[in-house]
Design goal:
Layout lengths: L3 H27 L10 E11 L4 H11 L3 E9 L5 E11 H13 L3 E6 L5 E12 L5 H10 L3 E5 L3 E8 L1 H11 L4 E6 L3 E4 L7
Antiparallel strand pairs: 1-3, 1-4, 2-3, 5-7, 5-8, 5-9, 6-7
Helix pairs in contact: 1-4, 1-5
Length: 203
């Protein structure tokens, strides 16, 4: 049986890792969040604990919109108390404006607590599904590379493969960048979820 093609693809995937993609992935995990300068726009991670009632989400979104803040991702889920929900928002804008937003959010009747978790030592994860162009000639190479990046194969067809990847936002960004050379048909991301370490309450 001729295995030269398979071995060649595996070696090619290995070269992609050796040539810097794996290095960039490791570096992103070790990168600390720098403190933005005054007036500089940056991404912020906000955690909220809110009443589980109709209309709460739109009222919170309006607070951000009125201040010109763009919401990059928003995740809402029921907490261990069904009367309340946890909300995780990633939004872009100036730190000074965010301080004003947090003050307004904490004044809303249905918001129990809202806080900026940017730069804190918290546990945060995101899930993404990526559908990649996958012709037979590159299939083994793509599968080997995705496995090295920590992806799980969830669907495979004659012309595409879909991967699931879970991790910090920087990991998702790097996997998307590395696999984009083959052609990304679709990318779906859950947005960031987070929880405080130890006994500390998240929000």
């Amino acid at each position: 049986m001729n295995t030269n093609g398979k071995n060649g693809n595996v070696k090619a995937a290995g070269r992609l890792i050796e040539n810097g993609d794996d290095v960039s992935l490791r570096e992103s995990r070790n990168t600390t969040t720098s403190t933005p300068k005054a007036g500089e726009s940056a991404r912020h991670t906000i955690s909220l604990y809110v009443a589980n009632k109709p209309g709460v989400l739109i009222r919170i979104a309006l607070v951000f919109a009125r201040r010109g803040y763009n919401i990059d991702s928003l995740v809402v889920s029921e907490s261990n108390d069904p009367d309340f929900s946890t909300m995780n928002i990633v939004a872009s804008g100036e730190k000074r404006t965010l301080d004003q937003i947090l003050k307004q959010l904490n004044k809303l009747v249905d918001v129990v607590h809202a806080s900026d978790r940017t730069g804190e030592s918290i546990i945060h994860r995101e899930l993404a599904l990526l559908k990649i162009e996958c012709d037979p000639g590159h299939r083994v190479e793509i599968l080997q590379l995705a496995h090295a990046l920590g992806c799980e194969t969830v669907d495979l067809s004659d012309t595409s493969v879909t991967f699931q990847v879970v991790g910090e936002t920087e990991k998702i960004d790097n996997v998307n960048r590395i696999l984009s050379r083959y052609g990304v048909r679709e990318l779906v991301r859950t947005g960031k979820v987070l929880i405080a370490r130890g006994a500390m309450a998240t929000a």
